[in-house]
């Protein structure tokens, strides 16, 4: 297979595999698609702009030998699709676990978890504002968690935290592929000087935090839209 198709194939796998499972189970996911697509398009726009800004600033760069060569602005089309396909898979995992496992194990602790994470992320982000990836990712996520607790007061965060290990397992192969774990050449290069330089295999820690932030943003808007529609 042409190596330029690898990134596109990863996107399609992350979209296609959950898609096959959306029509079965105790709470078929396809019935909530209208809320998912709105949340994906809205959050995808903001994360695409974030990626475009970092690409323009040289914070990260795409390997032209590992993309098909179609661009949206300065981003490969595969990167734009990433912000649709990965959230689809992530929200599907969250939705499925919420309905398959009835007991909410973390309900009485989710506010404490969110408070501690928010403070920790903001402190690290502020302390490392000189590092573009670390500062923007950690500070942005910390502020977002604080906004959730103060304004939205979400009851679903306990469910999201329960799903987090599974979401991390979802994100690891995608980001490992992008950073060259499975191929001779990586797909995206990150400026190590703009991160904490803490790597998990080939991927920087910030990549996982960024991916978790992406899926959390989708779940947040997804749940808000369902609430506005009077759905659980």
Characterization of the model:
By secondary structure, the protein is mostly helical. Helices cover 64% and strands 6% of the residues. The strands form three sheets. Strands 1-4 form a two-stranded antiparallel ribbon. A two-stranded antiparallel sheet has the order 2-3. Helix 3 crosses helix 7 and helix 6 crosses helix 7. It is globular, with a radius of gyration of 18 Å.
Give the helix/strand class. Answer: mainly alpha
Major sheet size, sense and barrel closure: 2 strands, antiparallel
Number of helices: 7
- Terminal CA distance: 44 Å
**Strand segment tally:** 6
Provide the spatial order of strands within the biggest beta sheet: 1-4
Q: What's the overall average pLDDT, rounded?
A: 92
Poorly predicted regions: none
What amount of the residues lies in strands? 5-15%
**Helix-strand pattern:** HHEEEHHHHEEEH
Indicate how many domains the architecture comprises.
Answer: 1
Q: What is the radius of gyration computed over CA atoms, rounded to a whole number of angstroms?
A: 18 Å
Note the overall shape.
globular
In helices, the fraction of residues equals: 55-70%
Entry summary:
The chain is mostly helical and 232 residues long. It has helices spanning 6-21, 33-56, 77-100, 110-127, 132-152, 157-178, 205-228, and strands at residues 60-62, 71-72, 75-76, 188-190, 199-200, 203-204. The chain contains seven helices and six strands, in the order ααβββααααβββα.
SSE blueprint and pairings:
Layout: H1 6-21, H2 33-56, E1 60-62, E2 71-72, E3 75-76, H3 77-100, H4 110-127, H5 132-152, H6 157-178, E4 188-190, E5 199-200, E6 203-204, H7 205-228
Helix pairs in contact: 1-3, 2-3, 2-7, 3-6, 3-7, 4-5, 5-7, 6-7
């Amino acid at each position: 297979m042409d190596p330029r198709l690898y990134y596109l194939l990863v996107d399609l796998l992350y979209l296609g595999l959950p898609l096959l499972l959306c029509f079965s189970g105790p709470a078929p996911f396809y019935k909530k698609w209208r809320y998912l697509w709105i949340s994906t398009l809205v959050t995808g726009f903001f994360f695409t702009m974030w990626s475009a800004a970092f690409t323009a600033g040289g914070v990260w760069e795409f390997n032209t030998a590992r993309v098909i060569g179609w661009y949206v602005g300065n981003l490969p089309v595969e990167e734009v699709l990433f912000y649709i396909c990965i959230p689809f898979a992530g929200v599907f995992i969250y939705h499925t676990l919420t309905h398959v496992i009835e007991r909410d194990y973390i309900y009485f602790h989710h506010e404490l978890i969110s408070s501690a994470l928010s403070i920790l992320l903001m402190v690290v982000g502020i302390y490392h504002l000189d590092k573009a990836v670390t500062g923007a990712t950690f500070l942005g996520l910390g502020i977002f968690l604080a906004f959730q607790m103060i304004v939205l007061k979400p009851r679903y965060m306990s469910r999201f935290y329960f799903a987090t290990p599974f979401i991390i397992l979802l994100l690891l192969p995608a980001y490992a592929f992008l950073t060259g774990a499975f191929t001779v050449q990586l797909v995206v290069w990150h400026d190590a000087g703009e991160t904490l330089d803490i790597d998990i295999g080939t991927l920087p820690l910030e990549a996982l935090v960024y991916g978790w932030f992406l899926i959390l943003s989708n779940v947040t808007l997804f749940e808000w839209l369902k609430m506005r529609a009077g759905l659980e």
